[in-house]
Design brief:
The complex is a heterodimer of chains A (about 220) and B (about 475). Chain A has about 220 residues and is of the alpha/beta class. Chain A is about 30% helix and about 25% strand. Chain A contains seven helices and eleven strands. Chain A is globular, with a radius of gyration of 19 Å. By secondary structure, chain B is of the alpha+beta class. Chain B contains 17 helices and 20 strands. In chain B, the strands form five sheets. In chain B, strands 8, 9, 10, 11 and 12 form a five-stranded antiparallel β-sheet that branches. A five-stranded antiparallel β-sheet of chain B has the order 16-20-19-18-17, with no helix packed on it. Classes of the chains: A alpha/beta (about 220), B alpha+beta (about 475).
Chain lengths: ~220, ~475
C-alpha cells in the first residue's frame, strides 16, 4: 500500500468495503434473522432512521433493543409520542419505568432541542423521536450529539422520499400478518438488503395471525 | 477578663455603591430633616461634614450627589457585613444603624492572641468596601464609646482601656442629652469624672437609666446582646444602574447575584433546589419567576443557565429596574459518586437534565410513567414527575397496546379480529358500562385495540405499536 493510502486510512478518510464490522458497535435486536442481516444488531449509538406506518409493530421490533440499552441504568427518553404511552406494555417488555422520561414539547424546534440536550448529557441511552421533520444539518447535529453522549436516537417517521440523511442505519418497515417486512435502506459499513420477514410469532403470539387464523378471519370478514 | 470589640461603619450607604465611577463623585446621604448623615471620602474632602444642613452642603459642593437615607437598606447592609464577618468570629451582635458588637474574649485562644485575631478579622473587612472605626473595651458600651471617638484602639490591657475611657467626653456615651446637660452644669465633662462619683449619690440625683448605663459600662450589670446566627436563606436586591429591556443583558447583574449566592452556599456546604427571581419594574407589579433544580445546585454558572432558559421565554413589555433574588430553603450538598471505571461522557446527571428540560419546555412537558394497580386501561398508567420509582409490586397485564388514544374513537373500517373478547367492567359492577376488548388488524396492517360496548358499538382505544 502506498504511503498516501496508509495515511488516508489512518485519518479515517478512506473506507474499505471489506471492513464490515468496524462501522459501529452492534447491540442484538432480539430477533435472530434481523441480527444476521444487520451483522449483529442495531447500532449502540448514533442516528437510526425507521420509516414506518404507525401501529404495525415498529415499537415491538425495538423493545428488546431498548431494554438492553437501558440496562446500564441510563435513561430512555420518548419525545412527542403519538398518543399516551401505556405503562402495562412497556413494563411487561422489561423497560424500567423509573428510567423513562416522556417529553411532550409544543413545537418541533423544542423537540429537537430536547433531543440534543438528552443525547449530549451522557445520562440517556436511547431517545425516540416521533414524526419530526428533519433537515440534513439537524440530522448531522443529532448524530454528533449522540456520538458525544454514547446514546442512540431513533427517528420514527412515515415512509418518505427525499434526501438521504446521514444515519447509521435506515430501515423501512411494512406490516405483515406474521410480523414485519423489513428492508434495510442504508447501513453504515454495509449494503442495503432486500425485504425480509422478521418473525414475531414467537415473541408476540397474540399479535400475529397463523395462516389458518388468517383465512378464517378473511372468511368471516367477507 | 471580658473583652469586646465595636466596629462602627460611618458611611454604609455611600460605600455600598460599588461602581468605580460613582466613587469619583461626592456622595452624601440626607435624612428626613435635610441633614447630612453619611458621606463618602470625596465629599469629605470638599468640606462637607456630618450633621451639616443640606443647603450649606450644596453651597460648598455644587455637584454633590444626594441619596435618601433608607433605614431598611442600612440594616440589610449591616446584616450582610455581620454574615461576612461570621466566617472568622463567632459572637456578633447588630447595633443598628451602623455598628457591630463583637465578643472577643472567647476567640482569642483560637487565634492565639489579639494580633492574630485582628489579622484575620481585618483581612475579612478589607474584602468589603466599607470604611470602619474600631475599638476594644471591657464591656460592650465601653468599646462603643471608644469606637465612636474613632480611636481605632485595639488592646487587651485594662489600664490603657480604663485611661482611654476616663478621658472620653460625655457626648460619645449613650446618655440622653438632658442628662448630659445636667452633668455638664455640675462640671462633669468626661466619663472619668462621672465614674468616680459614688452610686448612691448619683441615684439620688439622676434617674435609673444613668445608673443602668454606668453599670453596664463598668461591666457590673449584665448586658444582653442578641448574637446573630448564620442565615439559612438568601435574599438580595440589586438596583440596576440603568433600565434593561433585553433579557440577554439581564444575565450580567443576575450572574453577580448568583455568585454571591454561590459564595454563601459554598461556605456552609449547602445547595438549594429553588430560586425566586423577581424582576421589578417602575410602573408595573414585579414579575416573579421560580427556577428549580431537581438535583440541588450551588454553582452560579449552572443556575445562570437555568435562569436564562426561563428568561429567554419571557417577553418584557417594560424595562426592568431591579432584580431580587430569594432562596428560602437550603439543603445539604450531596456528593455524587461517579463510576471510576466507566466514566460517562458529559457531567450531567439525570436530575440536572430534567431540570434543564423543565426550565425550557415548562414544568408539565416533562414527565415519567408509572404503573398503577388498576385493571381499567385509562387508570393503569399515570404520568407523574420524572425519575420517581413507582410501586414495584404491581404486575403488568400481558397484552396491552403501546399507546392509548386520549379519547376512544369510533371504529370506521373493517378489521380482522385476532383475539378476544376480554371483558372489563368498571368498579361497582356497572354492567351497562362493561366493555369487551378485542385485538384487531386493519387493512393498513395496524394492530388496534378495540372494544364493543354493551350497546354493540365499536370503538378504537389503543394502538399496538
Amino acid at each position: 500500500m502506498s504511503a498516501l493510502l496508509e495515511q488516508l486510512t489512518r485519518r479515517q478518510l478512506l473506507w474499505q468495503g471489506n471492513s464490515q464490522h468496524t462501522a459501529y458497535q452492534a447491540v442484538s435486536s432480539g430477533y435472530a434473522e434481523l441480527d444476521q442481516q444487520l451483522a449483529g444488531g442495531f447500532p449502540a449509538s448514533g442516528l437510526i432512521d425507521i420509516q414506518t406506518e404507525q401501529g404495525i409493530g415498529e415499537l415491538r421490533l425495538l423493545l428488546p433493543y431498548l431494554q438492553q440499552q437501558q440496562s446500564a441504568g441510563r435513561l430512555l427518553v420518548l419525545i412527542s409520542p403519538p398518543a399516551e404511552p401505556c405503562a402495562d406494555m412497556l413494563c411487561a417488555a422489561g423497560i424500567v419505568l423509573s428510567q423513562l422520561v416522556i417529553i411532550t414539547p409544543k413545537t418541533s424546534k423544542d423537540a429537537l432541542w430536547a433531543a440534543e440536550q438528552c443525547l449530549q448529557s451522557g445520562c440517556c441511552a436511547a431517545v425516540l423521536l416521533w414524526q419530526i421533520p428533519l433537515k440534513l444539518a439537524q440530522a448531522r447535529r443529532l448524530q454528533l450529539a449522540a456520538e458525544q453522549g454514547a446514546a442512540s436516537v431513533i427517528l420514527l417517521r412515515r415512509p418518505q422520499q427525499g434526501l438521504s440523511l446521514p444515519v447509521n442505519l435506515s430501515v423501512k418497515l411494512q406490516g405483515h400478518c406474521q410480523g414485519l417486512l423489513l428492508s434495510v435502506q442504508k447501513r453504515k459499513g454495509g449494503w442495503p438488503a432486500a425485504p425480509f420477514l422478521v418473525d414475531m410469532q414467537h415473541r408476540w403470539p397474540g399479535l400475529c395471525f397463523t395462516t389458518e387464523q388468517h383465512w378464517q378471519a378473511r372468511r368471516k370478514a367477507s | 477578663m471580658a473583652l469586646y470589640l465595636y466596629l462602627q461603619f460611618p458611611a454604609l450607604q455611600p460605600d455600598s455603591l460599588g461602581c468605580a465611577t460613582v466613587q469619583q463623585l461626592p456622595v452624601a446621604v440626607v435624612n428626613g430633616q435635610h441633614c447630612i448623615v453619611q458621606l463618602n471620602a470625596v465629599a469629605g474632602h470638599s468640606g462637607i461634614t456630618l450633621n451639616m444642613a443640606l443647603g450649606t452642603a450644596a453651597a460648598l459642593c455644587p455637584n454633590l450627589q444626594l441619596l435618601p437615607y433608607q433605614p431598611q437598606l442600612q440594616l440589610n447592609i449591616l446584616q450582610s457585613v455581620a454574615q461576612q464577618l461570621y466566617q472568622v468570629t463567632a459572637d456578633i451582635a447588630l447595633d443598628p444603624p451602623d455598628g457591630l458588637y463583637i465578643r472577643l474574649c472567647n476567640m482569642l485562644q483560637l487565634y492565639q492572641g489579639l494580633p492574630g485575631y485582628w489579622q484575620a478579622l481585618s483581612r475579612e473587612l478589607k474584602l468589603l468596601p466599607y470604611r470602619y472605626y474600631y475599638a476594644s473595651g471591657a464591656s460592650p458600651f465601653a468599646a462603643k464609646c471608644l469606637a465612636r471617638q474613632q480611636l481605632n484602639l485595639l488592646t487587651g490591657d485594662p489600664d490603657a482601656l480604663a485611661t482611654a475611657l476616663n478621658h472620653s467626653p460625655l457626648r460619645f456615651t449613650e446618655l440622653d442629652t438632658d442628662s448630659q446637660q445636667q452633668l455638664q452644669r455640675l462640671g462633669i465633662n468626661t466619663l472619668g469624672q462621672l465614674l468616680v462619683l459614688s452610686q448612691a449619690e448619683l441615684a439620688r440625683r439622676f434617674d435609673s437609666s444613668l445608673l443602668s448605663y454606668l453599670g453596664r459600662l463598668r461591666g457590673s450589670f449584665y448586658h444582653a446582646l442578641h448574637y446573630i446566627k448564620p442565615e439559612h436563606s438568601f435574599s438580595r436586591y440589586v438596583e440596576l444602574l440603568y433600565d434593561i429591556i433585553d433579557t440577554a443583558v439581564l444575565s450580567t447583574p443576575l450572574h453577580a447575584l448568583l455568585q454571591q449566592l454561590e459564595q454563601q452556599l459554598q461556605r456552609i456546604n449547602a445547595a438549594c433546589h429553588q430560586l425566586q427571581l423577581s424582576l421589578l419594574f417602575r410602573g408595573m407589579p414585579a414579575h416573579r419567576l421560580s427556577i428549580g433544580s431537581a438535583q440541588g445546585e450551588y454553582r452560579a454558572a449552572n443556575w445562570l443557565k437555568l435562569c436564562q432558559l426561563q428568561l429567554d421565554k419571557l417577553k418584557l413589555t417594560e424595562p426592568v429596574s431591579g432584580l431580587q433574588l430569594e432562596v428560602t430553603a437550603f439543603v445539604a450538598q450531596q456528593s455524587q459518586s461517579d463510576d471510576l471505571f466507566q466514566p460517562v461522557p458529559g457531567a450531567v446527571s439525570p436530575l440536572q437534565l430534567v431540570s434543564l428540560l423543565q426550565a425550557r419546555l415548562g414544568y408539565h412537558s416533562v414527565s415519567g410513567l408509572t404503573l398503577q394497580n388498576q385493571h381499567l386501561p385509562e387508570q393503569a398508567s399515570q404520568r407523574p414527575l420524572p425519575l420517581l420509582a413507582g410501586n414495584a409490586a404491581v404486575t403488568a397485564l400481558a397484552l396491552r397496546p403501546a399507546f392509548l388514544l386520549a379519547k376512544p374513537q369510533r371504529l370506521t373500517e373493517a378489521v380482522e379480529i385476532s383475539q378476544g373478547p376480554e371483558r372489563l367492567c368498571p368498579d361497582g359492577w356497572a354492567l351497562d358500562a362493561q366493555r369487551d376488548y378485542f385485538i384487531g388488524r386493519n387493512n393498513k396492517g395496524q394492530w388496534l385495540w378495540l372494544y364493543r360496548t354493551a350497546q354493540q358499538q365499536w370503538f378504537v382505544q389503543g394502538i399496538f405499536s
